[in-house]
Automatic annotation (TrEMBL):
InterPro entries per the UniProt record, alphabetical: WD40/YVTN_repeat-like_dom_sf (IPR015943), WD40_repeat_dom_sf (IPR036322), WD40_rpt (IPR001680), WDHD1/CFT4_beta-prop_2nd (IPR022100), WDHD1/CFT4_hel (IPR048591)
Protein name: Uncharacterized protein
Annotated GO biological process: DNA repair; DNA-templated DNA replication; mitotic cell cycle
UniProt domain WDHD1/CFT4 helical bundle: residue ranges: 751-855
Lineage: Eukaryota, Fungi, Dikarya, Ascomycota, Saccharomycotina
Organism: Spathaspora passalidarum (strain NRRL Y-27907 / 11-Y1)
Gene Ontology molecular function: chromatin binding
Location of this chain's protein in the cell: Nucleus
Pfam families recorded: Ctf4_C, Mcl1_mid
Chain intervals with Acidic residues compositional bias: 324-341, 728-752
Domain WDHD1/CFT4 second beta-propeller: 415-713
Segments forming a coiled coil: none
């Protein structure tokens, strides 16, 4: 068929890419130049950017408007497409690099090549980390909806790595599926002569929704693997013609397979060939291919790029009918086509779908109109950690109008919220975490191209317990709860559908169920939760902004429904104890309900939360012994609910200030933030967010760390300043060798008071759990062991405090401390300390105290 040529370069290998966000065509040439063609304004001259010579790959990130190129010199260069300048070399390798891709919303670049390493480069600080591969790397492909990269090796294997965390993690391998390929080029790559053997396809390709991995095989076929189980579900036969490249269109409808002398286009769903043609490359060879709607571009080894307009027949959308007719009229009037008119070949808008740039403008316009209405309430809504869900926005506009025809929006003061959730990031690929806890995290991905669906991935911190899995969601779920056995998802509301929706499935996908939740006018689901019972009798709770609380068993049977005040958040413990946060006007309360018999332990008790510019709730969960834990965004402090089993006697105890724990007074950590996941024993399990302005975890996700609980008792800075003052009095400077050691000793001594309060607090918490009739016998021995540890810490801390008081001659304070010591052994140690320091009156009083205690024990 006829085609046009873009003669942007007179020679060299030209790689072609299409950037849908900016609607630009990128052509990178091995002679050291990139040219950017603005398709929306074809009359403009292309932007030229100098790059390193002998490039081996070109990759771009649509949202950040950046590109990277690799070369046989082993350099990875970062390009700013907006300014048209290079940002310099961000990584170097001793051997050639063969490919690179942007991952994690453009925050990092993964690259590799002949040195058997996979290198991850942070774009911002240029830091790198690497893992060793079993062979040379030849190609990379990125699945943005699953945060997975497929790594093609020279031995024909494909390894799949998860890059959702900081360190790439191998999740699967496909062995002996590719043509074995060893790159021998070390300088200029001559695909036409010396390095012709390297012109064989050894790359993989992901579908836009992330469900399928396309792999070219040894038999010159393209096999389609399903991500769920890595099984082959489709095969596309290229009639034994050697595959040079292949690409799936953005809408997933068409697959092009490029060979040395032509190409085939398949309908992806049916597998039928819908177009096939030969191309005369004038003694040269095709190099790669890229789609723009139904417009196909082919890069070649002689510098040219071929442009094939309307390569697949597709009716133009109504938006472009007039433009298409005008184009036809111009052609009919005899406009000369010399085969090299760049303006003509870039002016095409007869795509399969709406032109991306205009489609985005239309979508953004709709979003702007939404925000004109929704933002009126933003000052009252900005507390919770997740942003407005799309279904929540729709529910606010459903069925409300005024006499002048404008939408009248009722004031909703509660956002749909799941513990650990985050708002969507910005860009063409939208990502957010639906929920996060000690076990794992659930995250969704939406794209402009696939607006009607989103990809949901369920991931686990301990991958030996459950495997990660993914599925496509057509319902628009925006709430979630995760336990050891399954995932609960909910759609808060939808103006196009009747009622809210709840969906449950177990992690092994052995059973699932779905049911609609009846909602009254202006009602929507605000929170859902699932218990994590050891007996596998889980209960599911669904709450709404109007205070309707519905309880289901794990099979979807409704076992109860009650009416309460508007629900903000729900969490359920392993023993099916429900902790519920409610809101009336701007007042927050909490209730604790035993779901087995719907007994209230606490009901509508005031909660120490308030609306502010910061997050309302940063974390809410139970500890391992069913004590509610709350981390508010205002003070970033971990609170535990004490004595909640006693009516009218519950109280919140601060255990740890997260900011002070990770930042302290270190200026280098001033931008670090803490994202709590759960409390394990006396350690906070959390994520440390290093740098950046975001309050939320992003991609990549840092690995969880544990921070020791340290109750806010002692001001460490004062201890440090006091020690510095003492050293100055002694004539010792800041550089004294003993400064750091003495400072640590002072900190330990000051912490004795914190240890005393902490051991007292946890001892009381454990005692309450031990006395709870619902506590299982299997847990009691563990609780007793922990209680003994607390008792030992209690006495040790008092002995340290006693010693400090004696050393400062504060004898009244020392006597008040020793009276709190429980064990005779510790009392005897205090007696010896007083005796050694020659405080004989104090020693005698301690001896009398010991004798009195022994007599009381004998009487008992």
């Amino acid at each position: 068929m006829s085609h046009k040529k873009i003669t942007a370069f007179p020679d060299g290998n030209s790689y072609v890419h299409y950037n849908p966000t900016s609607d630009r065509l990128l052509i990178g040439n091995s002679e050291g130049l990139i040219k950017l063609f603005n398709i929306a304004e074809p009359e403009l001259e292309p932007v030229s950017i100098d790059i390193i010579d002998n490039l081996t790959s070109l990759a771009h990130d649509s949202d950040s408007n950046r590109a990277v190129v690799t070369s046989t010199s082993g350099q990875l260069e970062l390009i700013d497409l907006k300014s048209g300048e290079s940002n310099g070399i961000i990584h170097r390798s001793d051997l050639p690099l063969r490919d690179a891709v942007f991952v994690n919303s453009g925050k990092r670049v993964v690259c590799g090549g002949d040195d058997d390493k996979l290198v991850v480069v942070d774009v911002q600080d240029k830091s790198t980390q690497s893992i060793t591969l079993p062979d040379q790397m030849v190609n990379l492909a990125y699945n943005f909806s699953g945060e997975i990269i497929s790594v093609c090796l020279s031995n024909g294997n494909v390894q799949l790595y998860s890059v959702v965390n900081e360190q790439p993690n191998l999740i699967h391998s496909l062995n002996n599926v590719l043509n074995a390929k060893i790159n021998t080029s070390l300088d200029q790559i001559d695909f036409n002569q010396e390095n012709h053997d390297e012109l064989v396809c050894s790359k993989t390709h992901w579908s836009s929704n992330g469900r399928y991995l396309l792999v070219p095989t040894i038999e010159n076929e393209v096999h389609v693997y399903q991500r769920d189980d890595w099984k082959i579900i489709k095969k596309f036969d290229n009639d034994n013609a050697k595959i040079v490249d292949f690409a799936l269109s953005a809408n997933g409808k068409h697959l092009v397979i490029l060979s040395h002398d032509g190409f085939k286009i398949f309908d992806f769903d049916s597998g039928n060939v819908i177009h096939e043609d030969t191309v005369d490359f004038d003694g040269y060879y095709p190099l790669n291919t890229a789609w723009r709607g139904n417009h196909l571009f082919i890069g070649t080894t002689n510098g040219e790029v071929l442009s094939l307009k309307n390569i697949v027949s597709e009716s133009a959308s109504n938006l472009f009918v007039d433009e298409a007719e005008e184009s036809d009229i111009e052609d009919d009037e005899g406009e000369k086509d010399d085969g090299n008119d760049t303006d003509v070949l870039l002016r095409d808008s007869d795509d399969e779908n709406e032109e991306p740039a205009l489609a985005r403008k239309r979508e953004y316009k709709l979003h702007e109109e939404d925000e004109l209405i929704i933002d009126e309430d933003d000052e009252e809504l900005n507390g919770l950690s997740n942003g407005h869900s799309e279904s929540y926005k729709r529910s606010k506009l459903n069925g409300h109008s005024t006499s002048n025809g404008h939408a009248h929006v009722p004031t909703f003061e509660i956002k749909p919220y799941s513990p650990g959730s985050t708002p969507f990031n910005h860009g063409s690929v939208k990502k957010r975490y639906l929920t996060m806890n000690n076990l794992g995290y659930v995250w969704i991905v939406k794209t402009i191209e696939l607006e009607s669906q989103q990809s949901i991935t369920v991931s686990f911190f301990d991958r030996s317990v459950h495997r990660e899995y993914n599925f496509i969601d057509y319902s628009g779920f925006d709430l979630a709860s995760l336990n050891a056995r399954g995932i609960l998802l909910a759609r808060s509301a939808d103006s196009k559908k009747e009622g809210g929706l709840v969906y449950y499935r177990d992690h092994d996908d052995s059973y699932s169920w779905e049911r609609k939740i009846p909602l009254v006018v202006n009602e929507y689901i605000t929170s859902v939760c699932i218990s994590n019972s050891n007996s596998e009798n889980d209960l599911i709770v669904v709450g709404t902004n109007m205070g309707y609380l519905r309880v289901f068993d794990q099979f979807g049977l409704c076992v109860n429904v009650i009416k309460t005040t508007p629900v903000v958040s729900l969490i359920s413990s392993s023993r099916a104890t429900l902790f519920m946060i409610n809101q009336v006007a701007n007042v927050f309360t909490y209730s604790i309900i035993e779901l087995a018999d719907f007994k209230y332990y606490q009901q509508n008790v005031m909660l120490p939360l308030k609306h502010s510019d910061k997050l309302l709730i940063k974390g809410v969960f139970f500890n391992e012994y069913d004590d509610p834990i709350l981390v508010g965004g205002e003070d970033d402090t971990v609170l535990v609910l004490h004595q909640w089993r006693q009516e009218q006697n519950s109280k919140w105890i601060p255990l740890l200030n997260c900011h002070d724990a990770i930042v302290g007074h270190n200026r280098n950590k001033k931008n670090w933030k803490c994202w709590p996941l759960g409390l394990i024993g006396e350690k906070l399990n959390c994520l440390i967010l290093k740098g950046g302005d975001s309050e939320y975890p992003g991609f990549p996700l840092p690995l969880p760390v544990e921070i020791d609980i340290e109750m806010p008792i002692v001001v460490k800075e004062r201890a440090k300043e006091k020690k510095k003052s003492d050293l100055d009095d002694l004539g010792l400077g800041e550089g004294d060798d003993d400064d750091e050691e003495d400072e640590e000793e002072t900190r330990v001594e000051e912490d004795a008071e914190e240890v005393f309060v902490r051991s007292t607090t946890f001892g009381k918490l454990l005692s309450e759990t031990l006395n709870d009739e619902n506590t299982e016998d299997t847990d009691r021995s563990d609780i007793m062991e922990r209680l003994n540890e607390c008792a030992n810490l209690f006495d040790k801390s008092l002995l340290k405090l006693f010693g400090q008081a004696c050393s400062q001659s504060q004898l009244n304070k020392a006597w008040s401390i020793v009276k709190m010591i429980k064990k005779d052994k510790a009392q005897y140690a205090a007696f010896r300390i007083a005796e050694r320091m020659q405080f004989m009156n104090l020693a005698n009083k301690i001896r009398e105290l010991r004798e009195m205690s022994l007599e009381e024990e004998e009487d008992d």
